[in-house]
Predict the structure of HTH-type transcriptional regulator ZntR.
Amino acid sequence: MLTIGTLAKKTGTKVQTIRYYEQIGLMPEPGRTEGGQRRYGDAELDRLSFVRHARQLGFSLDAIRELLDLSDHPGKSCAEADAIARRQLKQVEQRLARLEALRTELKRMVHECSGGQTSDCRVLEVLRDHSECLTDHEEISA
Amino acid sequence: MLTIGTLAKKTGTKVQTIRYYEQIGLMPEPGRTEGGQRRYGDAELDRLSFVRHARQLGFSLDAIRELLDLSDHPGKSCAEADAIARRQLKQVEQRLARLEALRTELKRMVHECSGGQTSDCRVLEVLRDHSECLTDHEEISA
DNA sequence: TTTACATCCTCTAGCTACTGTAGGTTCAAG
DNA sequence: CTTGAACCTACAGTAGCTAGAGGATGTAAA
């Protein structure tokens, strides 16, 4: 039986985060000691590892909820899990494209900085100059 | 003189966002009509364009505040603006590295999906299997 | 001039995914 | 039996907006 602190260490999660996951229904309510402290078993360790791993891969909590649901019902079709992963991959590729464009622009800003006064600073100039925008009014959710 | 709605359209910002920027002190309090509606001039249009451009480049509102401050004092050294841009570039490159690793892993998950039942699903398996982690307990803020 | 209606106003609450704090209790070691 | 780390609940705060309620204003046509 693990305390919440031990579980936290084993999974690289903060204690509060585990309690938060319980609150939003992502983790089950665990057993308690007589004094009211949470005690966890291996099932919870596995579940939390799954959640953290998915988070590291950039899945949203909602997506993880779906994945956990699929994983709890082994008879269901794999297609759904695959669809979720594909959606995720698409998002990642979009972010990559934007970040790459971004890196180019930032590099240019940095390399062209003359080192003088801000009145001549390329960094500020680039930000002021709207004509050099990649695309107008498009957001980067980096 | 521009209404807030016109300013919003010209800069690709939502009306609420402009009011929010005013609230947090990123945009100045504009003049008002007798009836109390906001009216903007070219200075505000420029400032908001600067802000939105910087946001598109992934700068935080705090960083933008610094940049605006530098830009308001043209005598200051360019070095600070350069430092902010360099910090930003570094962050972008870190994110890129993580996202690339992520893409590789997601691609593997998707390609190995057998199409059968969830009990054999590689997607879920990969998420359960902690040994295939890139690095332990490291977060991706994608 | 009146009426219609888009746009504006303030205020409040909600979103994601946590993180931090205050004030108090429990557990395990010595 | 005492100490002190770790636990508990409850609430507030973070970034960067976004949405909605309920009402006022501005403008253009009838």
About this structure: Chain B has two domains: 4-60, 79-132. Helices of chain B lie at 4-11, 15-23, 42-56, 61-72, 79-111, 122-128. Chain B touches chain A through 65 residues (CB under 8 Å). The beta strands of chain B are 31-32, 38-39.
